Amino acid sequence: MFANTEMKNYTMRGVQFLTDNQGKKTAAIVDLKEHSQFWVDVLAELGESTDFQFLINDKGENIAVLLEFDKHGELWEDVYDGIIADERENEPTVPWGEVKLKLMEKGKLSV
Question: Kindly report the CA angle at 10 between 85 and 41, in degrees rounded to 5?
Answer without folding.
Answer: 35
